[in-house]
Write a structure and sequence with these properties.
Elements lengths: L2 E8 L5 H10 L4 E5 L2 E7 L3 H12 L12 E6 H11 L3 E2 L4 E4 L12 E4 L12 H11 L7 E5 L5 H8 L4 E6 L2 H13 L6 E5 L10 E7 L2 H6 L1 H5 L2 E13 L3 H9 L3 E9 L2 E8 L5
Parallel strand pairs: 6-7, 8-9, 8-11, 9-10, 11-12
Antiparallel strand pairs: 1-3, 1-4, 2-3, 5-6, 12-14, 13-14
Length: 285
């Protein structure tokens, strides 16, 4: 059975978001904050190489950081899942979205949308600031009869939300086969399996179609890498929402996307995290 590596590293409260972003950029699948430490989970790999890569990232901000300050534990997959079950309780995400695991019930208010997520290997339960930021922008967007592309879908939470809001068709992709298996399961639990097309791979697996809305909650490096490719899927006047960004990434990302025909038209921030909204300005598909 698949194993996971849990890295425990020091991170003072003011550095949590910055260090978290670097961990996600290295492929981290989930982070838990513990006062002045972070627990970051990675797929089983060369532990020495991973520790050095993590230390190198942290030295960008703390030049004196030493790799020996990082502790490492091996976690069997079933233990990780049981830990999530013990701590994942229903919670409110945005104004009208309630997220819960399938073994819990939730109290709903009038107008609420309930999303049921099975949190396998922390592919995105909605707890992170970046998901909350995208949801704030999406709640104000009319999704009825819109075509939606969800890049790096993880647990599928954003794709499922779009389908529940009446999107005409949703395409969601991720390069992690286990994440896609989890996302498809979540789509089935939420009754939207026929409204979402799940694709495994990078953006190249997406058919050449025009989308009214593109959402991508990934990380700065990947968002810069796929900036030109995302533009190829934009409908005229289409909307793009990006997250997985730190406030310090804003200028670089804005420049990259402006150069490819996107006009900034909105933003949300929480702590050190940022989401950006754009409108497509070029051509007609």
């Amino acid at each position: 059975m698949k194993k996971w590596l849990e890295l425990e590293l020091p991170a003072e409260a003011g550095w949590h978001d910055t260090v978290s972003a670097e961990m996600f950029a290295l492929g981290c699948t989930g982070i838990t904050e513990k006062e002045e430490r972070l627990l970051a989970v990675f797929e089983d790999t060369d532990s020495r190489a991973l520790i050095e890569a993590v230390a190198s990232r942290i030295r960008r901000y703390r030049p004196d950081f030493e790799a020996r300050a990082i502790k490492i534990n091996i976690i069997p997959a079933e233990n990780w899942n049981e830990n999530w079950k013990a701590h994942f309780k229903p919670f409110r995400l945005g104004k009208h979205v309630v997220v819960r695991p399938d073994w819990e019930s939730a109290t709903l208010r009038e107008g609420d949308i309930e999303l049921i997520i099975t949190p396998k290997m922390a592919f995105g339960t909605g707890h992170h600031e970046t998901t909350r930021l995208i949801l704030r922008l999406l709640e104000a967007y009319d999704l009825e009869n819109k075509k939606v592309l969800d890049a790096g879908t993880g647990s599928g939470i954003l794709a499922i939300y779009a389908a529940r809001r009446g999107a005409a068709g949703v395409t969601a992709f991720d390069n992690d086969p286990e994440a896609m298996e989890n996302a498809a399961e979540n789509g089935l639990i939420n009754g939207v399996q026929n409204n979402i097309r799940w694709l495994t791979g990078d953006i190249g697996v997406v058919p050449a179609e025009a989308y009214d809305l593109i959402v991508a909650n990934i990380n700065r490096n990947v968002l810069l890498e796929i900036a030109g490719k995302l533009s190829a899927y934009a409908a005229r006047g289409g909307t793009l929402i990006l997250s997985g960004l730190l406030l310090t990434d804003e200028r670089t990302v804005l420049t990259a996307y402006r150069e490819r025909g996107w006009r900034p038209c909105g933003r949300e921030e929480e702590g050190e995290w940022l989401a950006l909204k754009f409108k497509w300005q070029e051509g007609e598909k």
